[in-house]
């Protein structure tokens, strides 16, 4: 498939889960991909199984120097940047705001929201120089409806949605679109760490699709939003949740 031929994509959290699936699919559809993660083992797997042009780079999206280095790698290796997929995120449920230390709050907000800010700040100048492109930020259903005992994650993922709308407004004149995907229950390593098997089965039953989501389901939405077919979509939030029938 050559739907994204001529594009250059930068994908964060590309060493596993949704980020890895996104890197693979964008490369399969013709884009040249810079896959970024702090997980060198996961990145090696991403590179080994990629079908297409894909380079890997160890980097921490919560660090400004690393965000700049990732964008510089895209320019150095492929000459431009037209797609940015901000997938970095994570949480550890179990605390209310009263239980959470200020340090924990900062950690989870940095991981889920500040990483998106930094990557966008680094990438937008090169995207503008490249003639424009597509930013797709990954939020969460928790950022839309809330979630028990996970306040920093909920706040940060809600912030990703609001930031996306701001980006769309501010950078439309540079031909840069920004959209947000809110995954529902997706079988990622994060879910497997945070949920018991019986909880995962329950979440699958709570979708109209009758199954748990897979990383490819989110990757396919990111690929669509980044393609010519998605060029009239800007500043939007797309819930990819299999038709949820209940809360988290």
From TrEMBL:
One Pfam family here: adh_short_C2
Highest taxon in the source lineage: Bacteria
EC number: 1.1.1.-
GO MF annotation list: oxidoreductase activity
Keywords: Oxidoreductase
Gene3D superfamilies the record matches: NAD(P)-binding Rossmann-like Domain
Keyword Transmembrane applies: no
Keyword hit for Oxidoreductase: yes
Transmembrane segments: none
Family of this protein: Belongs to the short-chain dehydrogenases/reductases (SDR) family.
Name of the protein: SDR family NAD(P)-dependent oxidoreductase
Natural source organism: Sphingoaurantiacus capsulatus
